[in-house]
């Protein structure tokens, strides 16, 4: 029997518990569809993807989470998980653009090794029942789902990404002791209200635009990409 690709890629275990897919999920970057384990260069995922959610009832809403469990490096994932994107209140049969973006999309910029980027979809209990976390570093998908009674994911995908100049290679995984994924002390920026989150998103987009005009790039985490 062929093993599930999420299990082979250790997404099941590192980020998610075993689950049964029940909703179609399609993620595309510039018309290229994400399939489990596929490879993307950072330049190919610089802009947020198009995300299409299946289902049949517009009254059902979903939360989309995108994380990097290998930050800052697969061998020392001390920032596991790094939150790259969070969208809530996505109606069934629509796209992520119809939802509420609580944590704006931050482009993957892996510096060490091959990173996995996991996109998971959860069904909400109702509209406006999920709220923004206060940090990106050491985010925990399981804890977040438990906090808002999201249950198991209904769909998930992941892709691999490494530095633009990287090619081939293996993900170096530390086997002696994995960094804890439980949140003890929030690190990184802290936003306590939805208004502050929205202001941050606008600020980040302005920084990115200014940086491109100046010929260099800034990221949300003080120029350290994950």
Automatic annotation (TrEMBL):
Gene3D superfamilies: PEBP-like
InterPro entries membership: PEBP, PEBP-like_sf, PEBP_euk, Phosphatidylethanolamine-bd_CS
PROSITE patterns tied to this protein: PBP
Source domain of life: Eukaryota
Family: Belongs to the phosphatidylethanolamine-binding protein family.
PANTHER family named among the record's database cross-references: PHOSPHATIDYLETHANOLAMINE-BINDING PROTEIN, PROTEIN HEADING DATE 3A-LIKE
Protein name: Protein HEADING DATE
Species of provenance: Musa troglodytarum (fe'i banana)
